[in-house]
Amino acid sequence: MLYTSCLFQYCMFHKIHFQTTLTREVAYPGLCVLFVLSFLCAFFPDTIGGLLDTTQAWIYQKLSWLYILLVSFFLIFLMVMAFSRIGNIRLGADNSSPQYSFFSWIAMLFAAGMGIGLMYFGVAEPMSHYVNPALPTVANPAKEAQLATFFHWGIHAWSVFAVMGLILAYFSFRYKLPLAIRSGLYPLFKERINGRVGDVVDIFALVSTFFGIATSLGFGVVQLNAGLVHLGVLGESSFQFQSLIIIVVSGVAVSSAVAGMNKGVKRLSEINLALAVLLMLFVLVLGPTTFLLSAFSEGVGYYINRLADLTFNTFAFEIAGRGWFTSWTVMYWAWWISWAPFVGLFIARISKGRTIREYVIAVLLVPSLFIFLWMTVFGNGAIYIDRHWAHGALSALAAQPDILLFTFFEQFPLGTPLCVLGLMMIAVFFVTSADSGILVMNSISSHNKPNTPSWQNAFWGVLLALISIAMLYAGGLKSLQTMTLVAALPFGLIMLVLCFCLLKAVHTDVLYYSIKIPYGSKNWDGSRWQERLEQILTFSQKTDIQRFFHDKVAPAFEELSGELAKNGIDAQILHGQRGALSMELQIAHDRVRNFRYGVTTERLNISDYLIDDDNTPDVDHNQQYVPVTYYSDGRTGNNIQYLGKKEIIVDVLREYERYINLIADEQKAMMFVDKGKYHLAKESEA
Predict the structure, then answer these.
(1) How far is 442 from 449, CA to CA, in rounded Å?
(2) Is the separation of the CB atoms in 149 and 126 below 8 Å?
(3) d(Cα 424, Cα 429) in Å, to the nearest integer?
(4) Which residues make beta-bridge pairs with 550?
(5) For the ranges 36-45, 444-453, 577-586, 608-617, which has the lowest average pLDDT?
(6) Which pLDDT score is estimated for 295?
(7) Which of 5, 320, 384, 483 has the fewest C-beta atoms under 10 angstroms from its C-beta?
(8) b/e per residue, 53-81, with b = 16+ CB within 10 A?
(9) What is the pLDDT of residues 335-385, one digit of tens each?
(10) Which residues make Cβ contacts (< 8 Å) with residue 656, sequence separation at least 6?
(11) What confidence score (pLDDT) does residue 305 get?
């Protein structure tokens, strides 16, 4: 770490020029924050750890309800996005197609999101809930253990990742902004996202991603070391062996990251998913198969049945379960939020071309269902074996997750090959988490610039390895983990703001793509095109609208009312019915609503983008006025600024024909009956 810091300082002071895309606004301040926090955690682990533990305990005790509401909101938000018409929007151009096959996409989602965690907690968490349930009075600890594990690793966890990934993918591929968290704030801050606000958000994401990966890799290296000791490959768990593991795995991760997304990360993810399926099938076939399949079916049903209750439960009325609630559920929600920048950025990078509906459904359901099956096979399998085969040997190790997985494998006929396969999976998960994290950190620190030099990926991999080793040596990994979890709450609130920005953006998107050809151009035959061009390039003011009423609307109404009078129909021309600049042609009736064809004036704001652009029509004011029609049934009609006198007459006759046809139909005429006039007519007849 000291060598890396000195190298950067030397290069900066001596102005050594080398190709780099690292940004001064994000990369250098981010590195300074990383070094300072790492230094504090490494040299003052007890002081910093105590302070962070106190802060974390206070947040969990006082604000646990906020974590629950945040994650619940993210899930509901995604459901609304997926199952409304917004779900049809594609993450990219309307004609774009997915960049990766469905299998490759899911494999990368799975490997980047929870790989090491599944290996570490697959047996340990269900067993822990079984031994120490949330409430001591639960009737079936094994069933409740499965439910709690499903809840912590299921759609709620993936909703946090999915929200972040959706925001980033939408603004990057749809709005053509950089693939950075700051881009999600564009509807709120516009171009100011390129200033200090955006820099602070990206620095926060960079630091959070780095420490999140570092602490997760800490779990992986400890378990990998314990597995090697269990198999007799290593004599003991020691700092030297753990450092060697970090160096070897980081080297492979750097090679994968340098190879790029399409080669290294994609291939490793596919290999890892295949190994995961193979390992799970081994355990399923060699274990209590019928029980596990039955438990999976019943567990999914129980989870769906309890979903609403679980989503909003804060143990407000079960004081005995508050400790379990904050230690598990709140801790997990904070952990998933802290991982959201990393996993969200990675998911966004691989999701171009998917529709929002396809994205949400796949990201929430596919990994969740696989995890449910995984946790059932390993967690329920361990509980069953502990009850029937091992006579409590596994539950006795519930507090030692490092070796619990390998002790579980030892209960099978092919225990040693299973342990070897498990070690291979942990190593590959280790690599896929690290290489995807390296790519994400390089992306954040370089504003997602293309064609970044290979040495930058190597730099982040080396830095990750060095700080992880330093934290292992000094005992500061726990402090880093706590710091990451404490930072999750403010970032969760930032995600809430990002959701608001996404809603605002998709609303504009729907309006943009639902806009129709101007009403006056639908049936235009191309005549008077020079006059039409002049109208298009002119943004009407009040004087222009007054001239439009005087030259076109009034003559059209007068000519039409004269012709109606020849046919015995009295038509009146009224002024000011809807504001000073309005005019209406009205035909009175006794039993049904009067026919009305009116033209009023609407005031519209002109976009700053158009005003500031050099190659657009000159605009003297930031507002324009347009003539808009309205009708008998209260409908607001169309902008008729491009219509001439004869075209306005045609438009009135079109509406009058519709009106006559409607009141001629007995069933439809009921809608046009003027109820007040009808009762007055009845009273006069009486």
Answers:
(1) 9
(2) yes
(3) 9
(4) none
(5) 608-617
(6) 95
(7) 320
(8) eeebeebbeeebebbbbbbbbbbebbbeb
(9) 899 888 888 888 888 888 899 999 999 999 988 998 999 999 999 999 999
(10) 587, 595, 597
(11) 95
pLDDT for 261: 55
- The most confident of the ranges 37-51, 93-107, 250-264, 485-499 is 485-499
DSSP, residue by residue, 324-387 = HHIIIIIHHHHHHHHHHHHHHHHHHHT-TT-BHHHHHHHHHHHHHHHHHHHHIIIIIHHHHHHH
Please say whether the beta carbons of 37 and 460 come within 8 A.
no
CA distances from 396 to 297, 387, 390 (A): 28, 12, 10
User: Which residues neighbour 211 within 8 Å (Cβ) at sequence distance 6 or greater?
Assistant: 34, 37, 480, 481, 483, 484
* Per-residue pLDDT at 680 exceeds 50: no
- Residue 51, classed as helix, strand or coil, is helix
Q: Which residue has the higher pLDDT, 274 or 673?
A: 274
Q: What DSSP character marks residue 263? A: I
Q: Which residues contact 539 (CB under 8 A, 6 or more apart)?
A: 606, 617, 619, 621, 624
Question: What does the block give as tokens for 368?
Answer: 């969740």
User: Do residues 429 and 224 make contact, with C-beta atoms less than 8 angstroms apart?
Assistant: no
Pull the structure tokens for residue 137: 């009075």
The answer to whether 641 and 548 have CB atoms below 8 angstroms apart is yes
Burial of 36 per CB tally in 10 Å (0-12, 13-18, 19+):
exposed
Amino acid found at 199 = D
Name the DSSP letter for residue 573. E
> What dihedral do alpha carbons 445, 447, 450, 451 form, nearest 10°?
-30
Highest mean pLDDT among 78-82, 387-391, 637-641: 78-82
Distance of CA 446 to the CA centre of its chain: 22
Distance, in Å, from the CA atom of 200 to the CA atom of 491, rounded to the nearest integer, reads 12
Between the alpha carbon of residue 540 and those of residues 182, 602, 622, the distances in Å are 38, 11, 11
Tell me: the pLDDT tens digits for 181-227?
888 998 888 888 888 888 888 888 888 888 877 777 776 787 778 77
Looking at residue 516, what is its pLDDT?
Answer: 60
Q: How far is CA 408 from CA 123, 140, 180, 309, in A?
A: 8, 22, 42, 32
Structure tokens at 530: 């020079």
Backbone CA torsion sign across 503, 508, 512, 516: positive
| pLDDT band (50, 70, 90) for residue 435 | confident
- CA–CA separation, 638 and 673 (whole Å): 25
Q: Of the ranges 468-482, 599-613, 672-686, which one carries the lowest mean pLDDT score? A: 672-686
Collapse the DSSP code of 242 into the 3-class scheme (helix H, G, I; strand E, B; otherwise coil) and give the result: helix
Percent of the chain residues past pLDDT 90, beyond the cut: 28
Instruction: Identify the bridge partners of residue 303 per DSSP, sorted by sequence position.
Output: none
The pLDDT, as a whole number, for residue 131 is: 93
Cβ-proximal residues to 69 (8 Å cutoff; 6+ apart), any chain: none
Both tokens of 631, joined, read 């009708």
CA distances from 633 to 340, 512, 519, 599, 605 (A): 51, 27, 20, 14, 28
Measured distance CA(369)–CA(138) in Å, rounded: 25
pLDDT at residue 158, rounded to an integer? 93
Dist CA 590 CA 606 (whole Å): 44
| Beta partners for residue 579, in sequence order | 577
Does an H or E element contain 433, and which?
helix 415-445
pLDDT band at 11 (very low <50, low <70, confident <90, very high): very low
- 């009312």: which residue's tokens? 561
